[in-house]
Amino acid sequence: MQTLQAVIVGAVQGISEFLPISSSAHIVFAQSIYKLITGSQVLTQVGSEEIFFDIMVHLATVFAVLIFFFKDIVTILKEFFKGIIQKKYDNPDFKLALYIIIATPITGIIGLILKDPTHSLVENPKIVSLFLVGTGLILYFSEKLKSKNKEINLKSTILTGIAQGLAVFPGLSRSGLTIATQVFLGIDRVKAARFSFLMSIPVIILASMAYPILEIDFKEISNFNYEAIFWGFLTSFVVGYLCIKYFMKLLSKVTLKCFSYYCVFAGVAMFVLFSICHRL
Predict the structure, then answer these.
(1) Which pLDDT tens digit goes with each residue over 60-102?
(2) Are 52 and 228 in contact (CB under 8 A)?
(3) To 10 degrees, what angle do helices 189-209 and 70-86 make?
(4) Cα–chain center distance at 275
(5) Does the reported pTM lie above 0.85?
(6) Nearest of 24, 16, 25, 111 to residue 64 by alpha carbon
(7) What is the mean pLDDT of residues 92-119?
(8) 186's torsion region: left (phi>0), alpha (psi -120 to 50) or beta?
């Protein structure tokens, strides 16, 4: 792995993990376009180094969430354990922690069920582009058909956990589906985004390490290009942090329709591009 490759993938991961535009789709597109430009060369292989690198850039985005929401996380954890000890369960932060705990296994079960059927889809950018169009339509109609103002509750948590699990399909945005689900149910966009980012912490950690780490051949670990991995990690972290920061501000001013237009446009454009290239 070269440094340029690591930085490109890190930037794509950082910018698209939290924006509702599907990080998996953009990584597939970046890999496919890179291959078209360079001929037979691919952006990333599927060896131990690349699996390790994939874990690192995903963990970089987790660190971005942890740092941005550090005070919130400390408060939530404090109120959660305080609520258990004092048997007081009506605190909003206690409920939020409980909702994240409930949503995580729901997501995990669905992700495990769909993992194998969706695994091969990453090799087909045309299919991924159609799923990205689907993300755009979901974002659009979540705003169009949203309910009246409500708060996060058990029902919205379960549905959001299911939505997050369905994001295992490459092209379906994790943040897009979770935020759209809550907005559709009447939850404020900023609150929905905050909950989406917080509930991503355990899911990304588990998804990045539970299975991929078993695929690494640790005999090869001394041959990894750690300089490239470092720059990819740093790029993913910095870009991810900035995306969270400005996305939260942006959501108070614009609707999800803005991102829906992008997803539909990008999905159609990529479908046309790879359809043409496939015929050449």
Answers:
(1) 999 999 999 999 999 999 999 999 999 889 999 999 999 999 9
(2) no
(3) 90
(4) 26
(5) yes
(6) 16
(7) 92
(8) left
